[in-house]
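Example 3.2
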Amino acid sequence: MTVHRALAETSHLIEQINSQNPEREARWLLESVAGSLITDHRREEITISRDQAEKLNALIERRLKYEPLQYLLGTVDFRNININIDHRALIPRPETEGLIDFGLTAIRSLKHPRVLDVGTGSGVIALSLLDEHSGASAICVDNSSAALELAIENCQLLNCINRAEWLQIDLFSEEFTSLSPPPFDLIISNPPYVSSEEFDTLPLDIKNHEPAQALLAGSDGLEAIRRLAEASGALLTKTGTLVCEIGENHGLQALQLFRKHGWDVNITEDLSQKPRYLTAKLPAA
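Structure, written as tokens:
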């Protein structure tokens, strides 16, 4: 099969799952098995091997079952870094890249800030902060041992294993509130914020393939946000900042939850003008 034909047939098949850009997906899948062959100007003549064709067909079969493209490719770009990604963790979204800007603003003036990443998943938030602040160190917690394994792999990949500690801790446990040694200059999190009702309406590639525990946050989608508001203050320095991502429908509720626990809090919209980023500080004594 020629590269040209493989691209055309793959794109046609991916159209069946209503992909927004089947041509681009086809190119990425073929690149993952055939590499630079698809950039050859003679691709109407160049052929892929039988082994490459079999690998491509296996990826197409998985994609037609709505498995996310990022899991098929095994890597994802996020700001300035590239990490490994698979079913052990939630796929990083472009919106979460904006969370890093708020985190960096909070610690940029500090020479050696200490960061707590809550619900670290693939580790991408902490690793991006470490990449962009050479003096920062991080403690990263998650209740999933599988996600932590992936995060540690990514940390090793980016050669910053001596700047991060990875702990299996549940946000709702006493172990979280007694994390030692506090205090932290920054607490940052992309917590679960999907309600039980919303979960049933999610696209199949998310609902059937990404880890539910990284998405679901109780009947109202606010369980994790509520816990951060009530339990994080004791872990921050007096001038420390909490930054977290919130659901687009949770702006007012999240604001009220944090104010209830004495925080000075602000909500900022993302590039789509949807409430997305919460920043909070405890008032000076």
